[in-house]
Amino acid sequence: MISRETENVSSIDDVVLAFKSLTENSERPFITRDELFANLPPEQAKFCCRKMKPYRDRNGREINNAFDYDDFTRWLFNQQPHSSYSYHTSAVSSPS
């Protein structure tokens, strides 16, 4: 599925939209661990889970197993200073 969503990627916004398209109803500002594993090869899903920041809602509450794909994409494309990005380092295993 992700290959279909990334065939015409030419900008940061295209990558953000590709991640968003994998979320429930293609409208959430975060992607879940299960959505990553359902749509990416296992090694890519594990990489995303290790490197993406946990998603926090407007009130600063962390949503369980939800990741901030927008922040991650902008970090990958160096649109924000690397020093402000903290790695998410919890153990990651494939869903059972």
Description:
The protein is of the alpha+beta class and about 100 residues long. It has a single domain, classed as EF-hand (Recoverin, domain 1), CATH 1.10.238.10. The chain has helices at about 1-5, 10-20, 35-40, 40-50, 70-75; strands spanning about 30, 55, 60-65. The protein has a 3-stranded antiparallel sheet. A hairpin with a 5-residue loop joins β2 (about 55) and β3. α2 packs antiparallel against α5 (about 70-75) and α3 (about 35-40) packs antiparallel against α4. It is globular, with a radius of gyration of 13 Å.
List keywords for this structure.
96 residues; alpha+beta; Recoverin, domain 1; 42% helix
So, the CATH homologous superfamily? Answer: EF-hand
- Going by CATH, the architecture would be Orthogonal Bundle
Rg value:
13 Å
Overall structural class, as computed from helix and strand content, comes to alpha+beta
Reconstruct the topology from this structure.
Layout: H1 2-6, H2 12-21, E1 31-32, H3 33-39, H4 42-51, E2 54-56, E3 62-67, H5 69-76
Antiparallel strand pairs: 1-3, 2-3
In short:
The chain is globular, with a radius of gyration of 13 Å. It has helices at 2-6, 12-21, 33-39, 42-51, 69-76, and strands at 31-32, 54-56, 62-67. It is 42% helix and 11% strand.
